[in-house]
Write a structure and sequence with these properties.
1 helix; 71 residues; two-stranded antiparallel ribbon; Ribosomal Protein L9, domain 1; 6 strands; mainly beta; binds FE2/S2 (inorganic) cluster
Length: 71
């Protein structure tokens, strides 16, 4: 079992780490740069499920949250 962290950045995305790779919808394994995956939680990204920075333009507001997960 390993531990990963899910952080909801204040007014920003969910940050999942450490993540080395993920498998996309076509079955291809893709590396995660910096071992942190930023996932949209504002609903405005044009590259869902990933954050593309659109939360800033949308003035998204959300509290900071943090969870430690075991997988
Ligand atoms: S949280 Fe960044 S685009 Fe949605």
């Amino acid at each position: 079992m390993s531990r990963i962290k899910l952080v909801g950045a204040k007014d920003g995305p969910f940050l999942l780490s450490p993540v080395e790779n993920f498998i996309d919808e076509s079955g291809e394994t893709r590396a995660v740069q910096g071992h942190t995956m930023a996932l949209c939680r504002c609903g405005h990204s044009r590259n869902k499920p990933f954050c593309d920075g659109s939360h800033r333009k949308a003035n998204f507001e959300a509290p900071a949250v943090s969870l430690d997960l075991e997988v």
